[in-house]
Design goal:
Layout: E1 33-37, H1 42-52, E2 56-61, E3 71-74, H2 76-85, H3 88-92, E4 100-105, E5 112-117, H4 120-128, E6 133-137, H5 138-151, E7 156-158, E8 162-168, E9 171-176, E10 181-184, E11 186-189, H6 196-202, E12 208-220, E13 229-235, E14 238-246, E15 249-257, H7 273-281, H8 290-296, E16 299-309, E17 317-318, E18 321-323, H9 338-356, H10 367-399, H11 404-415, H12 420-430
Parallel strand pairs: 1-2, 1-11, 2-7, 4-13, 11-18
Antiparallel strand pairs: 3-6, 4-5, 8-9, 9-10, 12-15, 12-16, 13-14, 14-15, 17-18
Helix pairs in contact: 1-5, 1-9, 2-9, 9-10
Pfam families: FAD_binding_3 (PF01494)
Family: Belongs to the paxM FAD-dependent monooxygenase family.
Organism: Calocera cornea HHB12733
Length: about 450
């Protein structure tokens, strides 16, 4: 069964009608009140961009605090967007640039170096002007973004779970689990893979479990391990990456086949350090020995989660409501482009709203202007994110091969390293969303 997402035409479901009264019209103002559902990575960045353009964003987040997790990758396109907000240097300080990369195989027992490039990070920095940071502390990054939004006067309301969205000719309304509501002139779903906003627009489509699980965590830096290299480690039926994130800490992630979905419902976040260490030692990669065992043997924390795919919906918008990031185009994490592609979404959505529905016009933007911006955003972003999703899916399939001959063919290909063509693919993937000066 192929896991490559495809364009799926989902019958549009009518939005939940308002049984009593229409939305109260907003006072005549050129700015829109824009409700953003989700305060993960995309939500606060989009809010700050929209505020920069003169609109009035408000963010609602179902969790009581900012996002958890372990690490995420920040690529050059993210730093370009953060520069508009003056946050690029603060984000860069949360991790270390990836400078050197090494691919190793444990297919035949001892670790065989397939390929290494001591200047890959330098090439990216030289070509694009920004670093590639493989591993940034995700909770710290999420706090930076949420705190920055609040410091700029943007309301950020935690512990408010959106359960339904409705709209009529005068505006859009978000309903919350606690019985509260809020109304605005536009709403953006930044609420991830299991987006309530998307379900309100197009009906529920359950994600598909891929049969692959990830285990990610941090470890104390093993004595004698050269942490200047970012590592991609391959073997039969699994994969591992490891990269330095502090003076004495590595971030790592393992990908393994787990056919039964029930087995990935475990939550290691509530396990003691001793329990986590025991569970990590039960991973197939522990049996490889060498560097995988060195890294896993010094584990500090770990989480385990299943990999799910959901077809990209045919449309990302309806009326006054639009989707951004994983709510629109969820992707597997193998290339580290989920959060980075959402930054491109934020930039282009803000840019196109500035073009078609500016806050500076004499009258508030009408629904036709907003929908023109949404259509242009979708038409621009759909091809690029579809390609990113497909590339990530193929990468994931190559990492968990169980057939030994297929693994040997993969290793042979990896020995060829990053030629000119491969490097151009990498650069193109992280180049966006603009050249020269920002249009936002």
């Amino acid at each position: 069964m192929s896991h490559v997402p495809h364009r799926l035409v989902v019958p549009l479901q009518p939005l939940v009608p308002e049984p009593k009264t229409a939305l109260t019209p907003f006072p005549q103002s050129t700015a829109m009140k824009i409700i953003i559902i989700g305060c993960g990575i995309a939500g606060p960045v989009l809010a700050m961009l929209l505020q920069h353009l003169g609109h009035q964003p408000v963010i609602y987040e179902r969790q009581q605090t900012t996002q958890g997790g372990v690490t995420l990758q920040l690529s050059p396109q993210t730093f370009k967007v953060l520069r508009i907000l003056g946050l690029d240097k603060a984000a860069e300080a949360l991790g270390k640039p990836m400078l050197k990369i090494r691919y190793t195989s444990y297919l035949s027992g001892a670790g065989e170096v397939l390929f290494e490039d001591a200047s890959m990070g330098e090439k990216v920095q030289r070509e694009l002007g920004w670093p590639m940071m493989w591993s940034v502390d995700r909770p710290a990054y999420a706090r930076l973004l949420a705190d920055s939004a609040r410091e700029r006067g943007i309301p950020v309301r935690f512990g408010r779970r959106c359960v339904r969205v409705s709209q009529d000719e005068t505006g859009v309304r978000a309903m919350f689990e606690d019985g509260g509501e809020d109304a605005g002139e536009m709403l953006v779903g930044c609420d991830g893979l299991n987006s309530v906003v998307r379900d309100s627009l197009f009906g529920r489509v359950d994600p598909e479990y891929t049969g692959i699980a990830a285990v990610a965590g941090t470890s104390s830096l093993p004595p004698g391990l050269d942490a200047t290299w970012g590592r991609q480690i391959f073997g039969q039926g699994g994969h591992m990456f490891a990269v330095r994130v502090g003076e004495d800490k590595l971030a790592w992630g393992c990908t393994i086949p787990v056919p039964e979905e029930e087995e990935v419902r475990e939550d290691w976040r509530h396990a003691s350090q001793e329990e986590v260490a025991r569970l990590v030692r039960a991973l197939p990669l522990w049996g490889w020995g060498g560097e995988p065992r060195e890294v896993l043997g010094n584990v500090r924390e770990a989480v385990k989660f299943g990999m799910y795919l959901r077809p990209i919906p045919e449309s990302w918008h309806k009326g006054r409501v639009v989707l951004v990031g994983d709510a629109a185009h969820p992707t597997a994490p193998y290339l580290g482009q989920g959060a980075n592609q959402s930054m491109e979404d934020c930039y282009h959505l803000a840019r196109l709203l500035k073009l078609y529905a500016p806050a500076s016009q004499p009258q508030p933007p009408d629904i036709e202007s907003v929908e023109r911006a949404f259509r242009a955003y979708e038409q621009l972003r759909y091809p690029r994110v579809s390609k990113a999703v497909e590339q990530a899916t193929r990468e994931g399939q190559s990492r968990v091969m169980c057939d030994r001959e297929a693994c040997a063919r993969r290793d042979k290909m990896l020995r060829e390293g990053f030629g000119t063509t491969s490097m151009q693919v990498v650069l193109e993937a992280v180049r966006g969303p603009y050249e020269g000066e920002s249009e936002v």
